[in-house]
Write a structure and sequence with these properties.
Elements (H helix, E strand, L loop, with lengths): L1 H11 L11 E8 L15 H13 L5 E6 L3 H13 L4 E3 L6 H14 L4 E6 L4 H7 L4 H7 L7 E7 L3 E7 L8
Parallel strand pairs: 1-4, 2-3, 2-4
Antiparallel strand pairs: 1-5, 5-6
Length: about 180
């Protein structure tokens, strides 16, 4: 009510109201942590991978995360499970099949549902570049900011009206790489 009265007063005075602050949505893309050496078609995490997962959770302990998304792959689920437990959140699962239209639809839906918030998206390294491009990061930037190593983290900030800004981080999230 007060906002409406203030806007009316500004309009009546012939003064323009300041433009609304741009909305920033933050996507934190996480490559699944190091997998164990196993003949299983869907191996879990190695001991080093578990350390990476715990370090991710510790590093994002103070972050205001609204959703944590993961594929159904064991090592992706195990990578973000400590983070979900620390934030008392359920994991939201998604499935990719290599279809660019499906990837595009899934990422855009995640962004739409979480506009102005921070979300974590974990997958195996083969899917991350397509998801990053869908978020608005251009091809050349994807190649320079992303590699296929396990445990890599890329933060993408989507600002309404000004596009995407990407920053590669290490697993402890505290310093830029």
């Amino acid at each position: 009510m007060l906002k409406a009265v203030l806007m009316a007063a500004l309009l009546a005075a012939g003064t323009q109201a300041p433009a609304a602050d741009p909305v920033t949505t933050t996507l934190i893309f996480v490559n699944a942590a190091e997998m164990e050496a196993s003949p299983s078609p869907d191996p879990g995490l190695s001991a080093a991978g578990m350390q990476q997962a715990n370090l991710l959770a510790a590093s994002l302990a103070e972050a205001d995360i609204s959703a944590i998304y993961t594929t159904y792959v064991n090592r992706a689920v195990q990578t973000v499970t400590p983070l979900a437990k620390a934030h008392h959140q359920q994991l939201d699962y998604f499935r990719l099949n290599g279809d660019p239209e499906l990837t595009n639809s899934i990422i855009k839906d995640m962004i739409r549902k979480n506009k102005g918030k921070t979300i974590v998206i974990c997958s195996d390294p083969e899917n991350i570049p397509a998801m990053i491009r869908t978020a608005g990061v251009r091809g050349k930037a994807v190649k320079t900011l992303y590699d296929k190593g396990c445990g890599q983290v890329l933060m993408v900030k989507l600002n309404s009206g000004s596009g995407a800004v990407a920053q590669k981080l290490n697993m402890n999230i505290q310093k830029k790489v």
